[in-house]
Task: structure prediction
Amino acid sequence: MKLNSVGIQEGYHWIRQGFWLFKQNPIAFLMLVFIYVLVAQLAILIPIIGVITVLVLTPTLSVGFMTACRQAIQKERIIPQVYFCALRSTPLIRKRILQLGLLYAIMIFGLSLILGLFINVQAIIPLISNDQAITPEAIHQLYWALLIGGLLYFPIAVLMWFSPVLIAWENMSIPQALFSSWIACWKNRGAFLYYILIWAAILVAIPLLVGASLDTVNLGQAASFIIAPISMGGLTIMHCSFYASWKGCFIADEATVLGD
Result:
């Protein structure tokens, strides 16, 4: 395996390849994402412990989904247990992947503490509570939180983008995997920026446009029934495109060709 350098347009091709990969087994991929979203929502209901568990298992689940992408290409059957393939690997990989998850949880909690210094949490409460009026201050604080949170999460995302699979598939140590992930993302920053901008348009701009359009014809109540499937499908395809970015940035010894 070696690190590859790609052009800016490759970010668009990763998304096209994600669509192609999704079409190989759409039911299985939607099932995996639905299970993750459902379990995450249920876990969050358990104070502190639930959130920590989801964060610690995030690298494990990432390896599982990437493995499912491999299985789809090879026309193998995909089952939910694929999520835990990293934990069923060697004791060393299992230890490293859980340690990486613990590190990820620590970074996210650290980000939350820093974010709390910049935003007024009390002002955002009306946006998540139906019994309070939404104020301009609440909307301002929400956008401010999204901006600051995105900037703070960026270095975490870069470190974690490839590190789970580098540990599970390439048997790297945690420092090696984090460093390699950072270098791969930085070396191909143009492609990643293009990739992120396209997904931002798909997952944020399009649902907002659909919702606003329905509001103008007094069909706002039906928005959730239309936007939810679009968002779920987009989220699933985005996860499939992660595998395409992996193949684009790291050339494995065994060639795997993705459709376009």
Remarks:
- The two ends are 23 Å apart (CA to CA).
